[in-house]
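Human: Can I borrow your eye for a moment on a structure tokenisation matter? Separate attempts, laid side by side, tell us more than any discussion would. Could you pick a protein and write out its sequence and tokenised fold? No explanation is needed for now; the record alone will do.

Assistant:
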Amino acid sequence: MMKCAILLCLSMIGQTGHPQNVTLLLTVNNLKTVSGVVVVGVYNREKDFPIEGKEFRKLFVEVHNLTASCAIPDLPRGDYAIAIFHDQNADGICNLGLFGIPKEGFGFSKNFSPKLRAPDFNDCRIAVRENQAITINLIFR
């Protein structure tokens, strides 16, 4: 009995002493074509959002139908902002048109829809404290 109590206490200390990371499940809706990849940028610092190359994590999700999904595992608990685009032609860049507006579908966490400026971190901030799921609907302009 004493051995079980000691093991229980040690396991509880291990759980409270080290915060466990979590998984964010992402679903992307409104893809127009079954081609290319969805590029997902996960940002954890205000000053880096949404600068390509400054992501905390970057994922490439193959497109197999008009909805894409992926798991973003092993995230430390914290605040994040997500920027995505559907790289339809798989050229590795978000193709831009007039005035720098993306020609390919794009989106942000909290489904923030920019009007006259690019979003900042606070516009798209999500608190990730436990395993959770979010959906981002692509925007086309």
